From TrEMBL:
Coiled coil: none
UniProt superkingdom: Bacteria
InterPro entries, A to Z: UCP010219 (IPR016566)
Keyword Transport annotated: no
TM spans (from-to): 66-86, 93-110, 130-151, 172-192, 198-221
Region (Disordered): 1-24
Organism: Streptomyces odorifer
Xref: Pfam families: DUF3159
Entry keywords, A to Z: Membrane, Transmembrane, Transmembrane helix
Protein name: DUF3159 domain-containing protein
Amino acid sequence: MTSIDKPTDHRSAAPDADAPHSTTDADARAVTEAALFEAFGGVRGMVETVLPGLLFVTIYTINADLHVSAIAALAVSLVLGIARLVRRDTVKHAFSGVFGVAFGVVFAMMTGNAKDFYLPGMLYTLGLSLAYILTAVAGVPLIGLILGPIFKENLSWRTRNPGRKKAYTRASYAWGFILLAKCAILFPLYWWADTTQLGWVLVSLKIPPFLLAVWLTWVFLAKAPAPIDVFAEMEAAEEAEKAAKAEKAAKEQGES
């Protein structure tokens, strides 16, 4: 019986040969997903990003009271931040939202214009979009600086992993232009629309652009080479140095 005539065995060598590659790809994608969730706060981070602004515009739509709306937004932001501290989450995730809301509250209170509650966040988004684009042009993409430590590769992608640098560059351009498009919608509304119109549009634009940028980042990194674990390399070098010293000491002791 020829090999073609033989019945197919699902436990044959060919599937086994492919299995490690498939497992490696799946592991790489899982690591990428985990890193993105860690960097950007995951589902909880998205909720915390939307909730203060949603509360502000909801209350302001009902009673047009700037002080009540601002205090409510700041209060819920503080509660969310404290909850993260109680759960021992990172300080960055715990306080980044609080500071953003606090700046908006202070600015709106100073000017007396409720729309100014949103202005610091809009300016931050504009600055961030330019930072993503300019760092990508300069060859040091911001998304690589953010994710490099999480992947334990630090800046090794800049000189040792060109495929990964290319992926980070594409992802940074994606983030930059998506956020820039968001600003192109919001800033005209800041001048032309009223507070409630601006607020509802801003809240509706919180999650979709973010998800699009994260998804594109995942797509680019999933196709990129695996990160170089510089921490593992340093540990291996230290172990090799210790072994060499031990071997040299043993040799000297034997000769004596």
